[in-house]
Write a structure and sequence with these properties.
The chain has helices at 120-127, 158-172, 174-189; strands at residues 2-6, 14-21, 24-28, 38-39, 85-90, 96-101, 104-105, 110-116, 130-135, 149-156, 197-203. By secondary structure, the chain is of the alpha+beta class. The protein has two domains: 2-39, no CATH class; 79-203, Pnp Oxidase, Chain A (Roll).
Length: 206
């Protein structure tokens, strides 16, 4: 192996390494895929420009992504303003079962959501009207800064269920249509008969 210095007018000096194998030398210079190059003494390394700045003077790079879960942030005034709430109901033996659900305001003191009439939530609420609500994400993870609220709930059907469904539709829009299509396809492929949709009317504490 031998080392040589190449210099071109107007360019920094570079050191090239000449490798030899079995007595045959192969010169490795700039641009070769297997080259090994180092700056020669006095050569200047390329200078990278500073990252661009936002309007507030903060670099655009290395900005942490803030997740709502586990972060402290201002809670909505009403539980009805949350996108998801963790609905906890109770079995006959007192065991609690928590499920994330949508929520919508019905009037000043009541909120609600819809579910299948044969769902576990509906069955448990028919036996025990006690429930707790707490803000969460779509996977049921509690949001930091939220608190659990003890409420009572009632399972309704007929026109009352239509009333609750209309409130959910008004708040969540196209997402409701997508969910309905999903359940319709699920029932079709599973050869399950359509299930009744009931409303859960929740009375908030004073």
């Amino acid at each position: 192996m031998s080392v040589g210095v190449w210099h071109h007018p107007g360019r920094p000096a570079r050191v090239g390494v000449e490798l030899s194998s079995s007595g045959t030398g192969q010169k490795v210079g700039r641009g070769a895929a297997s080259s090994e190059q180092v700056d020669a003494p006095g050569a200047r390394s390329p200078v990278r420009p500073d990252p661009p700045l936002r309007g507030d003077g903060v670099s655009k790079i290395s900005q942490p992504r803030v997740e709502p879960v586990g972060s402290n942030y201002a809670r909505p005034v009403s539980i009805a303003d949350e996108k998801y709430v963790l609905c906890t109901t109770y079995r006959r033996n007192g065991e609690s079962v928590a499920t994330p659900v949508w929520i919508a305001a019905l009037d000043e003191r009541r909120v609600g959501f819809t579910t299948e009439g044969a769902s576990g939530k509906a069955k448990r609420l028919r036996n025990d009207a006690a429930m707790t609500l707490q803000a969460c994400d779509s996977r049921g993870r509690i949001l930091t800064g939220s608190t659990a609220m003890s409420v009572t709930a009632e399972v309704v059907d007929g026109d009352d269920a239509v009333w609750v469904a209309a409130a959910i539709k008004q708040k969540y829009g196209i997402q409701v249509t997508m969910i309905r299509v999903f359940y319709a396809l699920r029932n079709l492929f599973a050869r399950r008969p359509p299930t009744e949709t009931v409303g859960i009317v929740i009375t908030l504490p004073d």
